[in-house]
Amino acid sequence: MELKKCLMRVFAVILLFLVLAGLLHLWEFRQYTYNYNTKINQMLQEIKETYPEVPEAELIKILNQTEKAEKVTDFIATYGIDSRRDSLLLANEVRYRWFLAANLALTGLLAVIVLALFLKYNQKKDREIGRITHYIEEINQKNYRLEINDMSEDELSMLKTEIYKTTVMLKEAAEFSQKDKEQLKQSLSDISHQLKTPLTSISIILDNLIDDPDMDPMVRGDFVREIKREITNINFLVQSLLKISKLDSGTVVLRKEPVPLHRIVNAAIQNVSSLCDLRNVKVQVDAVAEDEICCDFRWQVEAITNILKNAVEHSFESGVVKVQMLSNQAYVAVSIRDFGPGIAPEDIRHLFERFYRGKNASKDSVGIGLALAKAIVESDGGYISVEATEIGSRFMVKYFR
User: Fold this and answer.
1) Which of 71, 77, 316, 322 is least surrounded by CB atoms within 10 angstroms?
2) Which residues pair with 287 in a beta bridge?
3) Which residues pair with 395 in a beta bridge?
4) What is the β-pairing status of strands 282-287 and 320-327?
């Protein structure tokens, strides 16, 4: 665009100078004509006064005659005048030199102006290239706080626009990378803390067992069961972290297929049956939907299992967990409600964060199950929410049609 503007200016200047040159040549022609006509008119008057017998028609005939031009040339040559090189009129000779100088000056001025326009264009282009080089150097130094505001549409401006777009993307990528690093740092810290507690407990129990070989069998049995419980917690934590890491990295290939919703719910209930027996909690299915959802069966069972497990763990002894399968034109949903101590209002918005443990969390909770459930449901295009009820809490998992 800038080059086009420069060429248009050059074209306009050349057109202006062509007009000026044409006017100058017209003026030159008129000056020569005037000088010649003046001299010839003077000569004709002298001839008429000296030779009155010569008719005017004869004089006009001589002026318009062309076949005797060579004789005329030979005649003036006797006076040392070359008709091909010299002018008979000294006034025209002077005019010729003046007009030649004017033409040269006009041509030189045209060349200077055209050269100045191109130098200005090249100077601006070099300046823009220098700025672009500076931008790239700043980007290489990881400085993404660049403001490249240019509303023109020439090639360099479009290049600057693309560099700005790249800068924005690199800035966002750097910010995301920093957030990912901070999140990874926090996650490693949380994992370290979560593993440290059960490992410390196991280490203390093992020290007691080693230091007291004659320990009462009942106490020893309690210690062994405690070790098993801690190992189970560690295994659950590691397995959950591996699963959620696979989802985060995108290495999980979800095999989506139509699956009846009640089949997923029944499989999840079966997975928590042992925990239900241990806590004497009953899972009651109040409504069943025959609808199918398109999802990965194994992973959705994992998600619903984690939600059910959370509900059972937060139910009172001999309590009930109610499950409902709902269906309408927009979505198919699973509602899971417990009747435990409930969720504190300040905990609701953090409930699906990794390693977050609410006020009413059980002592064995590591705060990873619900985060994993949310990641799985959203990977299949679903939506999960929670609300506090008058007694307990209710989780809703929606699968949109």
Assistant:
1) 71
2) 324
3) 336, 386
4) parallel
Task: Please report the pLDDT score of residue 269 as a whole number.
Answer: 92
What number is the average pLDDT over the span 354-379? 74
Q: Which residues of 330-340 are buried (b: 16+ CB within 10 A; e: fewer)?
A: ebbbbbbbbbb
The rounded distance, in Å, linking the Cα atoms of 114 and 10 is 6
* Burial 293-311, CB ≥16 within 10 A → b, else e: bebbbebbbbbbbbbbbbb
**CA atoms of 300 and 2, how far apart (whole Å):** 59
DSSP category for residue 383: E
End-to-end CA distance of the chain: 51
pTM of whole model > 0.85? no
Q: Which two tokens stand for residue 168?
A: 């924005």
Q: What is the pLDDT of residues 53-90, one digit of tens each?
A: 777 777 777 777 665 545 544 566 666 666 666 666 66
User: Taking Cα atoms as reference points, which of 183, 312, 179 lies closest to residue 244?
Assistant: 183
**Domains in the chain, CATH or no CATH each:** 2-140 (no CATH), 173-247 (1.10.287.130), 255-400 (3.30.565.10)
pLDDT of amino acid 396: 93
Average pLDDT, integer, range 345-365:
71
How far apart CA 158 and CA 152 sit, in angstroms, is: 8
Q: Please compute, for residue 70, the number of CA atoms within 13 A of its CA located in the half-sphere on the CB side.
A: 1
- Are the beta carbons of 259 and 382 closer than 8 angstroms? no
Between CA 141 and CA 144 the distance in angstroms is 9
Closest CA to 279 of 302, 313, 307, 236: 313
Residue 156: name the closest of 133, 140, 137 by CA. 133
User: How is residue 67 annotated by DSSP?
Assistant: T
Whether 178 contacts 196, CB under 8 Å: no
